[in-house]
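hey so i finaly got around to running the thing on Nitrogen fixation protein from Coleofasciculus chthonoplastes PCC 7420. pasting the sequence first so u can double check i didnt mess up the copy paste, my clipboard has been acting weird all day
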Amino acid sequence: MANSRKDRTQPSQATPMPSEMAHPKDSKSSLCPSSPPDTQDSVVFGIVGGTVDSPQVAYLREPQPITDELLALSEPVDPTEVYRIAASCWERGCQHFDGHQCHLIQQIVEGLPTVVKDLPPCRIRQDCRWWQQEGKAACLRCPQIVRTNYSMSETVKKVIKPHLDREIIALREAEIGNGE
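ok and heres what it spat out for the 3d tokens, dont ask me to read them lol
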């Protein structure tokens, strides 16, 4: 299989699975709730349901470690089309992080409507970077987020567009730096 567990990248440390629903500002490690599946400590914490136009995440009672078998269940589509995946935040290694905060969730909170009235039953909340930064406002929007969505709404496209632009600029700068 293309994404063999041993081929995955490894962040600096593994993150324990939380079970509490607190909002700690002093958490030592944070989870990114929109991670790719190829990080060593990645876990599935939700399943994407709903419709293409209106996705809705169903949260698992317990996060499940990513395995080759779990990845195979999502075939033929990309796992991030059907799973919500969390892993250690890459912080400065991520295009959305400025060293202090995640700009992706900031844009989501500023640009997308809430989709639930109450906090979802999310088992990663305690260590979630988005929760730690934006609190309840992040959680009320989180169920509509899908990492890979080929039919995203115009509103979602506008919200993430600044990050797409930054990614394109970074790629171009890397190409120029490599003499391409």
